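Project standup — Tuesday

K.O.: blocked on the structure for the chain from last sprint. Re-posting the sequence here as requested.
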Amino acid sequence: MSEGLPARKAALALLSGVLTRRRPLDADLPQMKAMPPRDAAFARALASQTLRHLGALEATLRKFLARPLSPHKSGAAMEILLLGACELLVLKTPAHAAVDAANRLAAADGKAVHFKPLINAVLRKVANTALPEDTARLSTPDWLWSRWVAHYGEEIAQRIAQAHQSEAPLDITLRGGDVAQPQSTGLFGLSRRVTQEGRVEDLPGFAEGTWWVQDAAATLPALLLGDVRDKDVIDLCAAPGGKTLQLAAAGARVTAVEKHAARLDRIAENLARTGLTAALAQSDARDFAGQAALVLIDAPCTATGTIRRHPELPWIKGAADVTLMAALAYEILESGAAMVSPGGTLVFAVCSLEREEGAEQIAAFLAAHPDFARDPVTAAEVFGHGDWITPDGDLRTLPFMLEGGMDGFFAARLKRL
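H.V.: unblocked you, prediction finished:
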């Protein structure tokens, strides 16, 4: 039990960063590089699972708390309770180990230490209960649930919420057909789902650059550009670079545009590892001066289609973020459209489930730009999955689609007349 304490302290720091400072989980991961890999993995898993089931865990704890805990007086006591409840109800840690670990965490906190008897008593009661049946709904904040019900209907909203209760699998994109790769199953095209365990960097083919990590749904927008061999393509908001690699591997002359230097460096590293080439440009997409027949925009968004991978998103974002990100993305859409040569193609994509960031963007853009028209996606272009195409002819994937799930993506293809 004492051996697991450093990992639990790290998990507490991750959880507190999300809940008290609204920081993404990944923001604090670099601080864990000095930890043994096994401890770091457990810390992230514990924090992630707590966030994935947060609403249900809070509802369970409320049954045994006479009143809410004030962070000012109790310090990290509530986060310690949440981690303990997650260990008991989700990870199925033996009760004596989970409760003892929570007590040790409380003892190390100047304020939570005074709540050790309460933490001990509550968790011993939690150990004799179970997560509520409506865990998926409870763990979806109202601001998201109401939007999804309004946009998709209650049945689809429930299926989305249920999909978020499971961690996303590891999908990869192959550089070519017959290359070194980990044990995996084929999905479609060059996308595969990894079944082999181990660190990504240690899997067969990674060091040789024969594949890169990319959710299956994230591969679809680049495919909508069609045959890109020997053609110029501008990839706006290119990081983390999966679509740049896709296009380069397909023979395109790619210009990857990214605002942030660190993210651009990551693209450069992946290009070097895979032996692919692309021109890199550090620029705000709204300021970039370029012209091409093919332009791909993977616009900034609230990323609610990636909650399986980032379970903190529902708790650090809100409805106001949808409005802000939609406004930014529309500016980039207009700038990207100006880069498209006459007769060329523009693909606009977001990894968001929100209509304001997807379908409504395209409707507003087409109403204001009569020189563009929608070029509907066909089922044949998305491997026969007609259910991934909206009545308007746009691409829309949802987290429960495909066996094992996929990211939620929206993409529309437009032609410049």
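K.O.: great, moving the ticket to review. The chain has two domains: 5-135, 215-416. The chain has 17 helices and twelve strands.
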